[in-house]
């Protein structure tokens, strides 16, 4: 039971609560202390004080006091509630939920605790628990529509569509009259119910409901789209066609409508003429519509294609549209189209030259198109690309686009240094455009110039952000910069800052996941249910975004290196150049850290203590105690850190080859053979011909042959599940056979060489064969860079020899220098 | 290029496009605030023909319009506001921005009975001003001094949406005249039967302690 207070202290206690809510933390603590002076064991006050301490960032103290409060007053729902809130803030949702439940047992009528518990449950995706909570909340206040909607959502998320629909209908049954047409909440509720019926596959009923209840719904687009879909599903093609035509009139630039209309009209995919006729109809009707002109190029072939492509290209080039190539390059997966398009551009160019009245605009656009064509992966000829882009630049020397492409061409040559210079020049041609600024910064990063990159982006970040451009980029969750910055630091061997940036990306995803929290209640109030459910569904797999996997995989690579290093150091023990360089870098980093700390201390000292900080409230912004990532790099458990990034990746991206490969490496090094095998088998499933699959299969058999202390049960499972290579086989021979089989393929050769290293093959042989890679006709400089990285990792004696030989072959490639 | 309604899964790449292109940036929660409050109003342009690089590719966003309704309009008139509009430099001159804006404006009238739409534009942004003034017909209302974080002034522009309302009503009337047979979804409007409906002021339960307080109060000028 909460202990009783005098009326004076009661008033003070209320003040504590209000101070907390108003974020007046100092005042809150002061007031709480006033009460505690008189009632030192007053649990609720201690609890409130703990809550405030926590908000001030004094987490440990808060937990200590929170526990003390509970000891003082085990029967107080406030103490339990606060205890739950502390855990909730620490993101320990399991414990938070337990504490809330205790609190609720003590105070079953508390709407606040019930709501906090419910929000936690949906955040944790504990749907049965959420249903229970929402049912209790509905029973407590059935007059509020939100409570009905919320219970319906709970059932929906739990996969129980019929129950979800029933709840909505039950509420509708209580309505004495239909709400106004302009009632947003009702309007959305109708559409939500309709989507529930549709999701059940009961299209007739969904259509009837739509035409009846949603006739004048406020969300017109949703009504029209659903109606068209239901009609099509019900086979009412004539009406479906009409419905899709109505949608096309509304938005002729939405591709899916054309496909659906074609389908509704019963036109088969082979009937290219009929398909094209539909698009022609809409391009005539909507002269400014791009889709109707562009899309037929996807399915037309032969002369039809040539004709349509010519008219499209001519139109675009005449207008001087700079995005023409970007809009057409996807056609290049078709060899014929890849041939035809540049021919058409050449013809256009010639006709321009002959026609004296022609405007330069079209000619330059055509030159630009061809420059991009020869720079594109599938049709690359960099000399030609250069020629065209130079001609284009001659026509318009100040064009950002042309100069940007020139930089791209240099990048493809491997001349990253000159590419960065060229991109930076393009930037100077339009200093007000952030797009070209971003590109220039990116190229500086590719050139490992983190400092210049930051300075460049800093021209557009908010000048008033305390801590400079980087803090602004972090605040604004600028994933691209953090990732590229981290990758550049990786190449420079600055592991601390590399991990710092890559982990920052992982942290951003934590924030994005946390962002949902407020919307569980917000969306109920706003009433936009379908959008909310869409958000929940997306958040369920948020980390399958390439933004996450790219950063996570890069960080995992670093952790793998860190985990492998001590062992390798132990073997040769001598101070290699690399080790020396590392030591030097660490020393430099430490100095830098000391400098930062000194500056921060000075700044603090200079601050006028009488001046309030910029914000009125006492909210604290946590200080970064590891700005250079030294602590991250000094991790005792690199593989444990790697697993933290890996686990969500394997969960949401099981079909990613890179994720499975990385998972194998991590688990093998950790001695988790069964988990490693699971990744290997998943990789084989995805792409059995991946060179890495070969390498890892060898590595796995080799590891098993070496392992002596495996439990019998594990051995049994492995024997049963891993049959790719029998234990009796000679792994070196298997590897040699693979190598011989894929003689001309650089990626396969690289995999075989890595396998050789794993198997402890004679170093002289491996070294020689790495050098031999340069003779392969198919080798590209990217392969050479990979090989060089391998030699460096192995601390081979041939690093210099290889580097020089490769540089002789590709003198422009910056990273070989 | 595909023009369609924004979904939540698009948000990271919308944020990316914004960060690459514009100096006024927002954290993801602010985008969520838009997509969960007015899901009908924001649109994206997507490069759909791009071949997938992995099974986990997200559609590449080459342009977007992020729009909202003014939560508590000072003039008491329901109106929309363009929070951010951007098209990647590589995809300009295809008319994408205009198409995005038109879709958004239509939904503003249909769903929220917006009377006009407002926006801010940098005084120096000639290309954007051309789009708003010449192509879309916005009027320059006033100059807001030092609106942007870097000290630049903004033009505060607005576009009356009466024409869209009229078109919707006409379409609706035509449908109603056509009787039963026309009741087949070609409608683009939802009023019409009640001639007063379009004039009726809508009371929308917004604002006030909506939980995501920090967001609601966010003033773009601070960006």
UniProtKB/TrEMBL annotation, chain A:
Cross-referenced SUPFAM superfamilies: TPR-like
Compositionally biased spans, kind Basic and acidic residues: 591-609
GO CC annotation: NatA complex
Protein's UniProt keywords contain RNA-binding: no
A Pfam entry, by short name: TPR_16
Record carries keyword Protein transport: no
Keywords of this entry: Repeat, TPR repeat
Lineage: superkingdom: Eukaryota
UniProt repeat feature TPR, residue ranges: 77-110
Region: Disordered, residue numbers: 570-625
UniProt-recorded name of the protein: Uncharacterized protein
Phylogenetic lineage: Eukaryota, Fungi, Dikarya, Ascomycota, Pezizomycotina
TrEMBL record, chain B:
Domain N-acetyltransferase, first and last residues per copy: 1-162
Entries under CDD domains matching the protein: NAT_SF
Compositional bias per record (Basic and acidic residues), positions renumbered to this chain: 191-202
Signal peptide: none
Cellular component per GO, a single term: NatA complex
Gene Ontology MF terms in the entry: protein N-terminal-serine acetyltransferase activity; protein-N-terminal-glutamate acetyltransferase activity
Organism domain of life: Eukaryota
UniProt feature, compositional bias: Acidic residues: 172-187
PROSITE patterns to which the protein is assigned, alphabetical: GNAT
Family: Belongs to the acetyltransferase family. ARD1 subfamily.
PANTHER family: N-TERMINAL ACETYLTRANSFERASE, N-TERMINAL AMINO-ACID N(ALPHA)-ACETYLTRANSFERASE NATA
Official protein name in the record: N-acetyltransferase domain-containing protein
Organism this protein belongs to: Clonostachys solani
């Amino acid at each position: 039971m909460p202990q009783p207070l005098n009326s004076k202290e009661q008033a003070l206690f209320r003040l504590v609560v209000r101070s907390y809510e108003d974020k007046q933390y100092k005042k809150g603590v002061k007031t709480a202390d006033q009460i505690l002076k008189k009632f030192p064991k007053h649990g609720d006050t201690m609890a409130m004080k703990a809550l405030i301490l926590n908000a001030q960032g004094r987490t440990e103290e808060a937990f200590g006091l929170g526990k003390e409060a509970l000891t003082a007053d085990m029967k107080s729902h406030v103490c339990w509630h606060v205890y739950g809130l502390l855990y909730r803030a620490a993101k320990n949702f399991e414990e938070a939920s337990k504490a809330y439940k205790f609190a609720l047992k003590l105070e079953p009528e508390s709407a606040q605790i019930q709501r906090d518990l419910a929000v936690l449950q949906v955040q944790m995706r504990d749907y049965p628990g959420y249903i229970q909570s929402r049912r209790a909340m509905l029973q407590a206040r059935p007059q509020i529509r939100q409570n009905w909607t919320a219970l319906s959502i709970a059932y929906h998320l739990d996969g129980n569509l019929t129950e979800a629909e029933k709840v909505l209908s039950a509420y509708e049954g209580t309505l004495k009259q239909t709400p106004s047409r302009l009632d947003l909440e009702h309007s959305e509720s109708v559409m939500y119910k309709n989507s529930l019926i549709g999701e059940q596959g009961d299209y007739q009923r969904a259509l009837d409901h739509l035409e009846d209840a949603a006739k004048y719904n406020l969300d017109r687009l949703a009504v029209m789209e659903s109606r068209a879909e239901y009609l099509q599903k019900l086979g009412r093609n004539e009406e479906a066609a009409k419905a899709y035509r109505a949608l096309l009139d509304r938005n002729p630039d939405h591709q899916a409508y054309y496909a659906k209309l074609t389908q509704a009209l019963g036109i088969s995919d082979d009937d290219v003429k009929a398909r094209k006729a539909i698009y022609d109809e809409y391009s005539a009707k909507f002269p400014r519509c791009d889709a109707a002109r562009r899309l037929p190029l996807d399915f037309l072939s032969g002369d039809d294609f040539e004709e349509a492509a010519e008219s499209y290209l001519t139109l675009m080039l005449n207008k001087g549209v700079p995005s023409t190539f970007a809009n057409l390059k996807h056609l290049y997966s078709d060899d014929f189209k890849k041939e035809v398009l540049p021919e058409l551009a050449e013809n256009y160019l010639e006709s321009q030259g002959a026609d004296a009245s022609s405007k330069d605009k079209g000619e330059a656009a055509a030159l630009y198109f061809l420059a991009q064509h020869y720079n594109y992966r599938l049709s690359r000829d960099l000399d030609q690309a250069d020629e065209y882009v130079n001609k284009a630049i001659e026509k318009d020397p100040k064009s950002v686009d042309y100069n940007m492409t020139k930089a791209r061409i240099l990048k493809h040559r491997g001349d990253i240094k000159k590419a960065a210079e060229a991109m930076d020049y393009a930037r100077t041609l339009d200093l007000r455009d952030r797009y070209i600024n971003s590109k220039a910064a990116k190229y500086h990063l590719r050139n490992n110039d983190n400092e210049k990159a930051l300075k460049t982006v800093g021209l557009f970040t908010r000048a008033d952000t305390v801590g400079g451009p980087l803090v602004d980029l972090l605040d604004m969750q600028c994933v691209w910069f953090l990732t590229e910055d981290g990758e550049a630091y990786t190449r420079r061997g600055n592991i601390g800052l590399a991990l710092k940036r890559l982990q920052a990306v992982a942290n951003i995803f934590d924030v994005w996941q946390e962002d949902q929290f407020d919307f569980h209640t917000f969306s109920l109030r706003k009433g936009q249910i379908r959008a909310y459910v869409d958000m929940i569904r997306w958040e369920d797999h948020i980390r399958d975004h390439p933004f996450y996997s790219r950063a996570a995989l890069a960080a995992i690579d670093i952790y793998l290196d860190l985990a492998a290093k001590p062992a390798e150091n132990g073997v040769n023990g001598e101070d290699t150049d690399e080790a020396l360089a590392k030591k030097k870098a660490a020393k430099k980093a430490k100095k830098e850290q000391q400098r930062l700390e000194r500056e921060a201390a000075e700044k603090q000292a200079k601050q006028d203590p009488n001046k309030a900080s910029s914000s009125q409230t006492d909210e604290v912004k946590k200080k970064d105690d590891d700005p250079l990532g030294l602590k991250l790099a000094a991790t005792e458990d690199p593989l444990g850190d790697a697993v933290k990034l890996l686990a969500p990746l394997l969960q949401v991206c099981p079909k990613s080859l890179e994720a499975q490969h990385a998972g194998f490496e991590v688990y093998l090094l950790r001695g988790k053979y069964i988990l490693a095998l699971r990744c290997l088998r998943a990789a084989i499933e995805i792409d059995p011909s991946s060179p890495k699959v070969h390498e890892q299969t060898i590595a796995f058999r080799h590891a098993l042959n070496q392992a002596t202390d495996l439990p019998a049960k594990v051995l049994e499972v492995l024997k049963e599940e891993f049959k790719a290579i029998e234990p009796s086989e000679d792994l070196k021979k298997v590897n040699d056979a693979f190598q011989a089989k894929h003689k001309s393929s650089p990626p396969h050769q690289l995999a075989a060489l890595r396998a050789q290293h794993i198997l402890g093959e004679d170093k002289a042989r491996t070294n020689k064969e790495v050098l031999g890679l340069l003779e392969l006709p198919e080798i590209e400089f990217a392969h050479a860079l990979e090989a060089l990285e391998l030699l460096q990792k192995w601390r081979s004696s041939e690093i210099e020899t290889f580097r020089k030989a490769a540089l002789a072959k590709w003198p422009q490639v910056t990273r070989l220098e | 290029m595909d023009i369609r309604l924004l979904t939540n899964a698009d948000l990271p790449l919308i944020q990316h496009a914004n960060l690459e292109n514009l100096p006024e940036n927002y954290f993801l929660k602010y985008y969520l605030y838009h997509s969960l409050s007015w899901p009908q109003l924001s649109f994206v342009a997507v490069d759909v023909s791009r071949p997938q690089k992995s099974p986990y590719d997200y559609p590449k966003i080459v342009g977007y319009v992020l729009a909202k309704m003014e939560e508590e309009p000072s003039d008491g008139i329901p109106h929309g506001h363009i929070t951010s509009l951007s098209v990647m430099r590589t995809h300009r001159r295809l008319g994408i921005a205009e198409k995005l804006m038109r879709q958004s404006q239509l939904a503003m009238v249909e769903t929220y009975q917006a009377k006009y739409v407002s926006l801010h534009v940098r005084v120096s942004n000639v290309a954007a001003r051309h789009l708003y003034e010449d192509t879309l017909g916005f009027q320059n209302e006033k100059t807001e001094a030092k609106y942007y974080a870097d000290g630049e002034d903004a033009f505060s522009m607005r576009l009356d949406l009466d024409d869209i309302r009229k078109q919707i009503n006409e379409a609706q009337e035509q449908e109603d005249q056509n009787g039963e047979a026309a009741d087949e979804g070609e409608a683009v409007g939802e009023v019409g039967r009640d001639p007063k409906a379009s004039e009726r002021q809508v009371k929308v339960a917004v604002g006030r302690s909506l939980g995501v307080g920090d967001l609601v109060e966010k003033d773009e000028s601070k960006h």
